[in-house]
Amino acid sequence: xxxxxxxxxxxxxxxxxxxxxxxxxxxxxxxxxxxxxxxxxxxxxxxxxxxxxxxxxxxxxxxxxxxxxxxxxxxxxxxxxxxxxxxxxxxxxxxxxxxxxxxxxxxxxxxxxxxxxxxxxxxxxxxxxxxxxxxxxxxxxxxxxxxxxxxxxxxxxxxxxxxxxxxxxxxxxxxxxxxxxxxxxxxxxxxxxxxxxxxxxxxxxxxxxxxxxxxxxxxxxxxxxxxxxxxxxxxxxxxxxxxxxxxxxxxxxxxxxxxxxxxxxxxxxxxxxxxxxxxxxxxxxxxxxxxxxxxxxxxxxxxxxxxxxxxxxxxxxxxxxxxxxxxxxxxxxxxxxxxxxxxxxxxxxxxxxxxxxxxxxxxxxxxxxxxxxxxxxxxxxxxxxxxxxxxxxxxxxxxxxxxxxxxxxxxxxxxxxxxxxxxxx
Length: 425
Prior knowledge:
Rossmann fold
């Protein structure tokens, strides 16, 4: 393995930071798990955040909600556990389709020390076997943005049934179309027994054991990774399957783990890889030679930087990430050419100073920082879109490049006076 950025000193910052809390992960998790419900035990602010993030239509009935903690709950004047039990009973009576119920901790529930783990155990016993109740934290005190998915999946691992079967487990919530593409490629390579965590439905929940090998589809699943290893599963170390190179190396690593020849993999991926390379090359014409600056948001930053540097010819000024996981980010850092600064955590004012000094062609950051930077004449990309949009594997590689190219093209058009518009006759 090349050293790449593995020896680059890491700037560790522990100041004010600008990220969404882990509750926002519910937006994509509830779409993925079709018979699950996410009940946030929190305040009206939590409810407003989720409604704003999801853009829920008035006639839609989503599979998430908020058990509102009122003033009397926060003041200890009411039995919060009794109230929670009542709300859960009413919810399950009204929604008999629910098979998995997640009690999601928030800042308010953590502040009053409401033991949701014990509540989940109590409610699981009450509503078993029809409903399994689990708990995880999405609190902004404990988690940032994508870490909500990590704590959710980690909460599921101890309850997975045991199995000695030889199998592959894909870990991380992917859009259904991308998951189908991954299964199809793996089947052609010769790996038939493939399960996913999370599964789309409770009855497809995977089993796990010492003969389970797992590949991560997201680079922010540190707690889930540790939980799977505690269950005896074996990790397949590989880059995240973003871009042509990342997808190729990810598939090759899986094939190696199952004793499948690389020649077989090459034969299977030759056509989709060639299509993806050609499509990325067309988009990369806009990105070639441009500079990018990543502010910390999702832990996807090292993988995205690797893609932009190696496949799109961009100069990466700084890679900021909420947490730099030594194991999970190692394959990405090894591939990155030395040069970018690495920053873990955030002191937002100091990092903004570095952005202003560098004046990059594009800054990847959260929503709260994008508009102020745009007002200063800097081009930005919303980091949240990189999680909501299908970007993994060969078929989405050009779409991933396009997410960065469009803001740059837009600025170029505006700098030229914008497109001319003809009056309609």
